Amino acid sequence: LSQHCAVVLKGGHADEERANDYLVVSGELQTFSFPRLENVSKHGTGCMFSSSIAAHLALKDTLQESVFAAKTFVFKRLQSQEGGLASF
Question: How far apart are CA 78 and CA 5, in angstroms?
Fold first, then answer.
C-alpha cells in the first residue's frame, strides 16, 4: 500500500453501543462516533455516506472534514425518522 493510503471502515452493523466509523490515513486511526439510533430504515445509508464524502471532497474539504460531514448528514437523516420506519 502507498504511504498515502486512506480507508474508511464502517461500523454501523457492529454490536457496539455507539455507531462508530473509522478513518485510517497513513496508519493513523481517527474515530467518528455517534449515538446508535434504533427503529430506523438503514437501507441506502452506505451509498448516502460515500456520496456525501465524494461531494465534500469535490468542494475541497479535507478528507477528515468530508468524513465527519458525511457521518453527520447520515446521522441527522436517520435521526429525522427515529421511531418510525420511513424509507429514504
Answer: 30
